[in-house]
Design brief:
Length: about 200
């Protein structure tokens, strides 16, 4: 088979796949509630692999894996990443479950088998057509936080109960949660207006 014939065959095959996907989407819509089809997941992983330049895949983490670096990565993750990915990296949050595709379980092989450079590249640049935004400064050379996160992501499968408890304290709080905590503190200090109703004369 000639190169031209192979190219034509690949083009026809691609057109058939696109047409099939269009039929599926026209029948079922573009709801983010659906689970991605197996072919979508396969293609997304393949495109992600192709989209990360070789130099980025081979990049090495400039930070050593120390307790201090892990603690910094853990705090950063709790404050910036856990709302989608959960403190334990499972992706089991209201936002994470309802993204399309859903936030991945970063403890699983699909993430843990990526190179450090690939994980850094994904954090720094985000992934198009997903809920994963680009983080950090424009220049990758200035992005120390994402490299520290790489060490923490590697640590996710071995996260301890004590680390999870610490992260829960570091998670951002809604204005409602802050108001509730302030009310509890006022009550404990004996300064809760609800505990001292106004006297009617």
């Amino acid at each position: 088979m000639t190169v031209r014939a192979k190219g034509l065959l690949a083009l026809v095959g691609g057109a058939v796949l696109v047409a099939g996907a269009c039929v599926v989407f026209m029948r079922h819509g573009f709801s983010a509630r659906d689970q991605p089809l197996a072919i979508e997941a396969f293609l997304a992983r393949r495109v992600r692999e192709l989209a990360i330049p070789r130099a980025a895949r081979d990049a090495r983490n400039p930070f050593p894996r120390t307790d201090e670096i892990l603690a910094q990565g853990r705090a950063h993750f709790a404050d910036h990443c856990a709302s989608c990915h959960a403190n334990d990296g499972s992706g089991d949050t209201e936002i994470g479950r309802n993204l399309y595709p859903p936030a991945p379980d970063m403890r699983a092989a699909d993430t843990q088998t990526l190179s450090d450079g690939e994980i850094f590249y994904i954090i720094h640049n985000g992934i198009r057509f997903t809920g994963m935004p680009a983080w950090g400064p424009a220049d990758p050379a200035d992005d120390q936080g994402s490299w520290k996160l790489v060490h923490f992501i590697r640590h996710l499968p071995r996260l301890t109960a004590a680390e999870l408890a610490e992260m829960k304290r570091l998670n951002p709080k809604s204005s409602h949660e802050i108001a509730e905590e302030e009310q509890v503190q006022r009550f404990l200090a004996g300064d809760d207006p609800a505990a001292h109703p106004p006297q009617h004369r």
